[in-house]
Design a protein that fits this description.
The chain is mostly beta strands. It contains 3 helices and 18 strands.
Length: 300
């Protein structure tokens, strides 16, 4: 098996950008002794939803909240016969999450691709403060997914599982603009193989895949904003290197809903699938598709 390779130039660029993002407008008023002794208040409304296009956000709602999510991706917009993707094969996920204690969110989802089930966890480690506290929010997210197709599709049950982990660093720069950076790790127990000239079976990709995601939102009004999503692959595989994920769109929000409409070059509804399997080159015509997310929050 070949030694795993990484694109270190990209890693350095990502880390440099992370440092810049986390230091944007850093500064808090600490002039009075009263301000120093008061408990810092967390910043509200960094993001409107726990999900922005394909990526989770640092947002974890209050204890006792339940979140229901519908994610839908149409097919690639390259054929008129499919009405530019609207009638092509699509992907969909329905998820539900609950916050049993402060800062902890537990969730479960069903995805149409390979009849995949997933359980997930999100924990807010640090919250950005209005003044006198943390300059950023830090949240961990992870999921465990299982391909539930018939056992004839696998050599062993071990091959069914995939995993995804990320640490999110976000900052609400001002009342309108929020940004988030997150290093991510995807792991597939089973990868596609090929037979070389000596008759050996070798994997076409590494089991693990590192990437870094960038998401942002700019509010044009109290209820309407522009959103963007970008995932940069860092791991260099033997073959089948995934393309970067690129997406942009708009978001409408109410007191309990978030509606996101966007175009993207990726068509799955789980982050590990998009990071590991996306072969759509965003520089080429027709490799984009239309998608939407609907999120509803309930206070129980």
């Amino acid at each position: 098996m070949e030694k795993q390779k990484y694109n270190f130039k990209k890693i350095v660029k990502v880390l440099a950008l992370l440092i810049i993002v986390l230091n944007v407008n850093y500064g808090f008023a600490q002039d009075s002794s009263a301000a120093k002794s008061a408990k810092p208040k967390p910043v509200k409304g960094t993001f409107a939803s726990s999900l922005l296009i394909d990526n989770e956000t640092v947002y974890v709602p209050n204890q006792g909240s339940m979140i229901m999510t519908i994610q839908h991706r149409f097919g690639d917009a390259n054929l008129y016969q499919d009405m530019y993707g609207l009638f092509a094969m699509s992907s969909m996920r329905i998820g539900v999450a609950y916050v049993p204690i402060n800062n902890l969110q537990l969730g479960f989802g069903l995805t149409s691709y390979n009849n995949t089930w997933d359980i997930n966890l999100k924990y807010a480690l640090m919250r950005q403060s209005e003044e006198g506290g943390w300059p950023i929010s830090i949240t961990y997210y992870g999921n465990w997914a299982i391909d539930t197709r018939d056992k004839s599709n696998f050599v062993s049950n071990y091959d069914r599982f995939t995993y995804f982990h990320e640490i999110m660093f976000a900052r609400k720069v001002n009342d309108n603009f929020s940004i988030q950076v997150a290093p991510t790790l995807t792991y597939f127990n089973n990868v596609v193989g090929y037979i070389n000239s000596q008759g050996d079976i070798l994997p076409t990709m590494n089991n693990q895949h590192f990437a870094c995601s960038f998401i942002g939102r700019y509010k044009l009004t109290d209820k309407f904003g522009i959103i963007a999503d970008y995932d940069q692959p860092l791991t260099q595989h033997t073959t089948n290197n995934p393309h970067p994920n690129v997406a942009g769109g708009v978001e409408f929000e109410t007191s309990g809903h978030s509606f996101q409409l966007f175009f993207s070059n990726f068509g799955f509804c789980l982050p590990q699938l998009n990071n590991f399997l996306n072969q759509n080159d965003y520089t080429k015509k027709g490799n984009y598709l239309f998608g939407f997310n609907i999120t509803r929050k309930f206070n129980l």
